[in-house]
Amino acid sequence: CTSIQSEQTQLTTERYYHKSPKPKHTITMAHILSAVSGTEADIVPITRALISVSDKTGIVELCTYLHSKNVELLSTGGTAKKLRDANLPCIDVSDYTKSPECLDGRVKTLHPKVHGGLLGVRGNPQHEKDMEENGIGKIDMTILNLYPFEATVAKGAAFEQCIENIDIGGPSMLRSTAKNHAFTTIVTSPDQYAEVMACIEENGGTTLSLRKRYAAQGFSLSAAYDSAIASWFTKELGEESPVVTRVYKPEFALKYGCNPHQKPAGISSLLNSNLPFTVLNGTPGYINLLDAANAWLLVKELRAATGLAAASSFKHVSPAGAAVAVPLTDVECAAYEVTPEGAAKLTPSALAYLRARNADPMCSFGDFAAVSDIVDEDTAMILKKEVSDGIVAPGYTPEALAILKSKKGGKFIVLEAKADFVPDSVEYREVYGMTFSQKRNDIIITKEHMTKNVVTEGGVDALSEGAIRDMIVASICVKYTQSNSVGFAKDGMMVGVGAGQQSRVDCVKLAGRKVTTWHLRQHPKVLGLKFKQGVKRQDRVNARVRYIEGDFTDEERTRWEAQFDTVPEPLATSEKDEFMKKASGVTISSDAFFPFRDSIDHASKVGVSYVAQPGGSVQDPQVTQCCDDYGMKMSMTGVRLFHH
User: Is 179 noted as a catalytic residue in this protein?
Assistant: First the structure.
């Protein structure tokens, strides 16, 4: 026998109302109820269950099992019909209470025989006496889910119809059952049915730990449901919701957060929502999933905007590279270590990832990949030879999935994006005790953004289709790059990304250095480097980059030279400068306006011919004149793309 006693004391709470000019309200609440004692047991057999569900998934199977255990079934309306159609005996709640449903079904279960049966404390003399005198039988389990209020709102239903889909009886039974969880079991989701049956089968009833857990989930569901109603109602009145309640369902634990000492860590979904990905293989980490979310959105938008298969290569929540499927030149084939014959046979997905990976192959080491289309065997074979942590895509052929599952000793992460997943329009983030909210950046970058306001000489007619495509690729890429950011693109691929700098011109210089390296990887002396047999692919990548940079220490040079049969002649600065004079046709996109012309001046050194930027600076005329001075064509998109 357990009894928890609370002192009857006075509680003062302070409530603050959003946007209210009035002083804060102080509400005094008296008479805190004492706990009611009863006979508590760990295992509670189920003898009578009340079932009232709008989502009837799996309900027949669960009730068939309960019936096999001699559980009496009470039900209402459509649920009762569903059970009877399955030849399951059930008693209508109206027959059980001797009170008919009324008021168009608004009153079905709001009756002492229902709530008394749920709230009665077993083993409490007064409760037992009251129940006997009033003909109230014990109800041990409630299986319910609530009227689909949010779905009704989402369909654009009229105000009155939305009101009618506010559940009253369901939340009341939920709360009664959950409150009395020491003796009653609340079941609120088809996801719980299998566990309920397993628990009863193993123990002869439900355990206290399960009842407590389900009660917590039930109260969370009730809170989320009421919050949705309150938020919708106040929005309909044109007012800000006084309270925002978001209820999360833990999905799986993570090894740690950003760093090993940041434990515990985990992934949750919004209650009654799914995660956007299914894990097909491996164990994703915290940063893996941040990369996956951003990488997937990037390629999904590239695919929609260009009509071409798209891929991205992410590291630390910014793209090292991104690309769409554009055929390779012979020189690019040589630089990317693929034969022209092999390149010609590549599928669009494989071609897109090959390009994305080769934007900056040094930074892509250990990347998280994303592909917009079904991953085929060609794409999987490219990934197989690269050092990579994982991939997200809308699907995989059986051959591709088998290849990827074998990578990294079976630990390679494979995520399948859910095509029907729709995120909330408002996103939230908690930082240091503050909860930030904002409308999700769901703007879709299109050709129109690049063509509606071309401010340089020649206007929109000066833009080729290839230039417009590259403007789109670069702009969508910087949309998912940590700000400040700029990105350079050519031939449908990023060739330099500058992320997370406080100064915009520093972004340009950082990304510009990568563009220079990308160009010089196609220099004849770089293509002609003769490596010793057995030098690994990533070591060859790194060696080429260091050859281009040329700033070796004595110790580093010794180790670098050991990779070659014959020590290469240095690539002189004059040779690099001469080669870079031929660079042209590159596009630069910026996530915000260029405040000065210095960024354009520097961009001119790496072959930039096209510029996409939001505009909006007092220096716009100066920057436009700078572009005209260099013969660049610039589009002002009118869309800032900061990303943090």
Answer: yes
Note whether 303 and 310 are within 8 A (CB): yes
> Among 472, 477, 464, which residue's Cα sits nearest to residue 359?
477
Q: List helix spans (H) across 366-503.
A: 377-384, 398-405, 447-451, 465-479
Q: Of the listed 56, 69, 138, 316, which one is catalytic?
A: 316
Per the model's pLDDT, the better-predicted residue between 258 and 250 turns out to be 258
Q: Return d(Cα 615, Cα 284) in angstroms, integer.
A: 39
What is the pLDDT, as a whole number, of residue 8?
31
- Name the catalytic one among 56, 179, 405, 447: 179
Note the maximum CA span of the chain.
Answer: 102
CA distances from 607 to 301, 548, 604, 622 (A): 27, 18, 6, 20
Are 66 and 49 within 8 A, CB to CB?
Answer: yes
Any alpha helices (H) in 237-314, and if so which ranges? 286-306
The pLDDT-based confidence of 394 (bands split at 50, 70, 90) is very high
**CA pseudo-torsion sign 55, 60, 66, 71:** positive
Which residues have CB under 8 Å from 459's CB, separation 6+?
none
Helix (H), strand (E) at residue 280: strand 277-281
For 284, 319, 335, the CA distances from 494, given in Å and listed in that order, are 26, 9, 15
φ/ψ of 343, rounded to 5, equals: -65, -40
* 158, 314, 493, 626 from 640: Cα distances, Å: 36, 22, 21, 21
Residue 633 is among the residues annotated as catalytic for this protein: no
Helix axes 77-85, 59-68, angle to 10 degrees: 70
